[in-house]
Amino acid sequence: MDVTSLINVVRRADGDEDDDQDPALQELYSSWALFILLILLIGALLTSYYVQSKKIRAIHETVISVFVGMVVGLIIRVSPGLIIQNMVSFHSTYFFNVLLPPIILNSGYELHQSNFFRNIGTILTFAFAGTFISAVTLGILVYIFSFLNFENFHMSFVEALSMGATLSATDPVTVLAIFNSYKVDQKLYTIIFGESILNDAVAIVMFETLQKFQGKQLHLFTLFNGITIFIITFFVSLLIGVSIGLMTALLLKYSYLRRYPNIESCIILLMAYASYFFSNGCHMSGVVSLLFCGITLKHYAFYNMSYKAKLSTKYVFRVLAQLSENFIFIYLGMSLFTQVDLVYKPIFILITTIAVTASRYMNVFPLSKLLNRFHRQKDRTLVDHIPYSYQMMLFWAGLRGAVGVALAAGFEGENAQTLKATTLVVVVLTLIIFGGTTSRMLEILNIETGVAADVDSDTEFSMLPWQGTADYDLENGAMELSNASHDSPAAAPNLPVMPDDYENIEVFTEASPSKKISSTFEHYQKAAGAFNQFFHASRDDQAQWFSRFDEEVIKPVLLERDVSKSSPKK
Q: What sign has the CA pseudo-torsion 282, 284, 290, 293?
């Protein structure tokens, strides 16, 4: 090898030459980068297994994943060459298109709907008003700091508000996992969970709206214009997700896909992902669309699925979300050292961390006081009152996550690298500080633990073929199950015994599409009278009206049969 060839090899190893000039070398380094990430992911899952099996609650596995990612990222940083370092750095495109969708879909699909809608007023207050307060407070505080011109750093007011929107996205994966292990009261769990999934969507829409005003003068008209864009984006995205979920429910009802569970499961997954990418392609919020598509799929399409599809979708969504969550925490830890272009300003990072804490305080406690006052006026203090211990836990659960880091990738201009570095460090700090001390805070606040969770409607018992809708493959499932239980019970000890008159059970009869369509029009006639009842009902009865309208009008149109008579109450 001559000197010129040797120099070219060294330059390629240092990342100075375009990697595309040597595909074989690029493939080699890609394999090593993926191998490192997979080994870290396996280690994180084994750590999770050890922590859970030994019931170690002092520290959560997500915090360990962040530390491990930091150590490996430091090793890669000091190693020669930049190719692997660039490949394992945080890329917002990978995050939004690969890692985030499974988490959002599983959040909507696994949502405990009865608890969620029971606390919907509190959740929406924290998700919308709370996120707005947090973003504005944080934006004003960091703008004041930049106005003082410390560290030769100055930012525009729009950049400051964008920074506030970026760091107003919470990520309580660690907190909720600890809540699950401690079996914390479902009300506290649901409020934090509901706030977080809607909070991410609100923060993303708010950030994207603010980006449209970069470099423009702000005035009163701009404020109203931004609010209008935000409202339109959010509710159009919600409509897209719900519509695709309803389309999926109707597709399952008016077809025989349940006879082919593998195809059925694939179509359900692809329809959900289609809502995400279609919404993004229309310049709407894919997160909002996918979240409400998942909720709609669970509320309606779930009852039209085959038994196998119910199980497969539930656990496939859960497994994909678990992999994504662990991968994200490792990714964040590594990115502290693998992203070489970041500019760290210690004083600005410290001020931003304090501002994040202050903005969370201004979010939780004033709104909790306002909600409690409203609940007292409605004489519902025992049910809806938010005690101080819950308020403190809500404050502590406001750690920031990867959504903020991914949003920060959208910063442009001379301050971009500083804002990206600050966001990354603040996210990691809040994960370690707040996430690592959640267990101790539960003990300090004397929050009740060991509370039995409500039985949800998606347990294995509710998915048994004779308890759901027309959801089981008659040719391959029901007859085998009945034969095993009647002819030779000992041959299938784990199978529940079918009733003797299973041939007469409605769930095993399947109407033709023409009969389904004719029965659908009959339910439309109930809708007009139902709306008249709603407008004449008292405010306290309207929630019950919505529930009855859903059970008596909407579900009969979308589902194989009236599941309210056969499925457990939510």
A: negative
